[in-house]
Amino acid sequence: MKLNKIFKWGMIALIVLSVALLIWGFTQGFGGSTVDTLLYWTYGMLGLALFCVIVVGLIVSTKNNPKSLVKIGIILVGVAVVCLIAYLLAKGDPAMAYNGPAVSAGTLKLTDTILNLTYIAGAAAILSIVVGEIRMSIAAKK
């Protein structure tokens, strides 16, 4: 019960602080440093959310079913393999018609890797929708 109160008040504090920063951004006009502050707050909130999901998820799943750690390990290895494949497929070529400052080869390779991961995730989403619909239609006919 006490842990529930801590989570509740922590969530309320984060929401109040987020709204206060948003109001501050509107009053300041979203200039250079204001945008930087809001982006850093966003990064912090996303990092906190990811940390909580991963850590709390691991703790709960380990407590409820210790064998689930094997599944999590397999999933992590699968994600690492997909990322490695996306990295190996990334060419790292400079963008066409780009006239800005020079970009390092590592940055170009990383950008292409992220694009490849986006393509893979999009294709997987479409494939899962199609396969799911096919499975549901087969199950409905039985």
Task: Please outline the major beta sheet.
Answer: none
N-to-C CA distance: 47 Å
Tally of separate domains: 2
Task: Write down the overall geometry.
Answer: extended
**Radius of gyration based on Cα positions:** 22 Å
Averaging pLDDT over every residue, what do you get? 88
Q: Helical segment tally? A: 4
Which structural category do the helix and sheet elements fall into?
A: mainly alpha
Q: Regions with pLDDT < 50 over 5+ consecutive residues?
A: none
Query: How many strand elements?
Result: 0
Q: What is the N-to-C order of secondary-structure elements (H for helix, E for strand)?
A: HHHH
Query: Which oligomeric form is depicted?
Result: single chain
The amount of helix comes to over 70%
Strand content: under 5%
